[in-house]
User: What shape does this take?
Amino acid sequence: MELLSKFPDEKSAWGALWLSALGFEITALFFQYSMGLAPCIMCIYQRTAMLGILFAGLIPFLYNHFASRLVAFMLWGLSSIWGLLIAIEHVDIQMDPNPFFASCEIVPNFPSFLPLHDWIPAFFAATGDCGNIDWQFLYFSMPQWMIILFGIYSLLFIAMLVPRLLVQRRF
Assistant: This one.
């Protein structure tokens, strides 16, 4: 437990978090632009949650101090849990036995002061249908894989935070 409590002090730990999220963002763009899979609104929200994890890893990697770790832990926790909830909702939409009643929005619901879909439409514009299952790997659809990924990020968040608070009593 003491080893886990010291892990957030290492820049390499935060760099690994940043690098993994960056890899998933690049993979999403590969699926979109190379494989022609149009992202739906739920995909865009999951992509945004992954960006939160990316920034959570980048902040302490660049400046590993108490305040940066505090912000990073909050951003990591919020992003991983929010992404998990969105992925679960996405799977529910795809698995609904009556697809006419399972739908999602067309335009992202970003705050009016931060219209990401207008600023960077190549990254944040939703052009796909939430109910479509256009890709599977090992019998799992994209949002089912995202449940696994965000679940791992959430478990890692808890595994890093709890020992840190119990042993170190600080961020």
In short: The two ends are 15 Å apart (CA to CA).
